[in-house]
Known about the structure:
single chain, mainly alpha, elongated
Amino acid sequence: MEALFLILICSTALILGNEFSIAAFIHPGLSGANHLSFLPAIQAFAKLFGKVMPFWMGGTLLVHLIVLWLTWHWPAPGSVWLLLATILWLAIILFSVLGPVPINDRVKGWDVNKLPADWEDQRRTWDRLNAIRVVIIFVAFLALLLSFKDLV
Length: 152
C-alpha cells in the first residue's frame, strides 16, 4: 500500500511541477520574447501534452480512487484528506477539459501565417486558466500529502 501511495505522490508531484514550470517559466519566457516566433514551440508542446496528459492525469485519478478505496476509514482525517484530493483531481480533469484543452486544440491547428485575430487573447486566456489549474493541483497535492501522513 505504501508503494502505491508513493507512486501516487510522485505522479501528482510531477504533474504539479510540469504545470508550474509551464506557468511560471516557459510561457512567460516565450511571451516576453517575440511570442509569434515561438508559436511553433508552443504548438509542439501542445501536441505532445495533448497526447500524454489525458493518460497521465486519468491514470493519476485512477490511482487516487484505488488508494482511497484501499485505505477508506471514515471519518479518519487521512480518509477525509484523500477524499478531498480525489475530488480535486476530478475537478482538475473536468476544468482542463472545459478550459485549457479546447484552446490547446485550436493552437495546435493554427497556421503561423494565418493566425486568428484574437490569437494573443486566446494564449493569455490559456495562461490564466493554467494558473488556476496549478493552484488546484497544488491544493490537491497538499491534501494528498496530509492523507499519506495519516494513512500510512
